[in-house]
């Protein structure tokens, strides 16, 4: 205690305290209080009623659909995001700056537009959609593949942007050493580069998963929204709000938030681990 | 980088706060406005009558100015009926509400904001009507003529989700009601079990349940689905806009009734009751009704209805929400947690 005292006094004069208070207050007002309201709303009739709401067949199906489509998207995103980040950092090619800027584009496009775009591209009346449907028997739009596509699009930047800075700062002497010892490009990547990128990849993937779980705008357009078939949790929540079921809406929201929060905490913990290296 | 970001965040925050601070006086200026020569009315409506109101409002403004020397200005808000109704309950101070179904007016009544007998105004408080009908592709390639055709194997049907779209409830009620009333082939009159099976058969053919009636018809216009269960007015307006789908009116269907009412609590607060009531009454005049009928809605005025009869053919068996005992009962029995619709969709998807 005694040892800390002088330091604390020093800190009091620095702007830290003020900045910290401002940021805490902001987070409190903008994030914590609204979340608390939902929490209170969802549990106002007790834990049993909360549980009943989230296990109603339609609600439970919507939650499970959301989780598995998000998980599938996350796996694809992890692989493709890693690949994209690697290409963007390690190779020089014409148009690289443009490609780099395109990566962030999904963040700027209203997700509703994303949905409309996918329907135009893969819808049952479009050439591509028709081909997939009739030749391969594969329905994209108004089915889970459409949901996965929409989620892939909107969360694509997360993995790439988490890996890029790590890759940029990666010390390349180890790679050169590996190469000089006769390791091929693939072995070098697998044994030297990938271990350094595994945690950022996982962290970015979890971030994209958390973002995907709550997605509404694009999914409502492409999913089909049929209860027990193609309705996701966020769309179910909207239905619950619209049909006076505030309790159900809050309960499912709480579950989504809890999932997102634990995933984000995990993602942050992983980030700390690689930063500590 | 971080400092710059913090500075930006601070600027954004202060701008946001400044905007919040300013909106207060603005609000009181615009919503409560009434004086000897000027009055401002806030109209909260569902989306369908937007174009009709664009023509009716100038008519009313001219007539009110001639009658009282007072200029009426309007602030109009259009969104889904349920969302609009909830907004009014949560404090959106609308003087007048025009909604797609009575249940949304009842919500405002239950909140204590609407206290007069709104059904005593005009034609039972219903400003316009329509019917549930089908949109089919040009030339009706599948030969869809009545409800039973929607249950045929492989017919892709569009109808919005009754949970998100108040208007979509009309569709389910029309379908289920027609079956209960014995107007669907193979379903005997007054047989709830057979009607339930028929509902399941049609729901099994539904390809997409959009979150609003408008989104559903938009999807249909993009070429999705073979039949859209929708409202007659949506099809007529779509045809006016140059689309090539066709209208099919089933033998038996429900009369869609769109209510309008003055919100007592807010008109009294704003001192706008007189003008607001006059506007609602104006909606029932032949002049206003004629406008509605041009935008695909069936007029409640007998003379206007007679004049437009060839555009709006009669329905062999037309029933109203009263067949289900009124909206509160229909909501509970058909759309409640263990209502007919939920049970049907669970059984369909469980197969």
Task: Give the key terms.
heterodimer; A: 277 residues; mainly alpha; MetI-like fold; 2 domains; 81% helix; 0% strand; globular; B: 351 residues; alpha/beta; D-Maltodextrin-Binding Protein, domain 2; ten-stranded mixed beta sheet; 10 strands; disordered N terminus
Any chance you could write out the topology, listing elements then pairs?
The complex is a heterodimer of chains A (277) and B (351).
Chain A: H1 4-13, H2 16-42, H3 46-55, H4 57-90, H5 96-108, H6 111-122, H7 127-136, H8 144-169, H9 173-180, H10 185-213, H11 217-222, H12 233-242, H13 246-275
Chain B: H1 2-31, E1 38-45, H2 50-68, E2 71-78, H3 81-89, E3 96-98, H4 102-110, E4 126-136, E5 157-158, H5 166-180, H6 192-204, E6 206-208, H7 213-221, E7 227-231, H8 232-240, E8 246-248, E9 252-262, H9 264-270, H10 273-282, H11 286-294, H12 302-307, E10 317-319, H13 327-335, H14 340-350
Helix pairs in contact in B: 2-11, 3-4, 5-6, 6-14
* Most extensive chain-chain interface: A-B, 27 and 29 residues
The CATH class of the largest domain in chain A turns out to be Mainly Alpha
For the biggest sheet of chain B, the summary is: 10 strands, mixed
Q: What's the CATH superfamily of the largest domain in chain B, by name? A: Periplasmic binding protein-like II
- The structure class of chain B reads alpha/beta
The level-1 CATH class of the largest domain in chain B:
Alpha Beta
What letter string, H or E per element, gives the SSE order of chain B?
A: HEHEHEHEEHHEHEHEEHHHHEHH
Q: Say what the CATH topology of the largest domain in chain B is.
A: D-Maltodextrin-Binding Protein, domain 2
The overall number of domains of chain A is 2
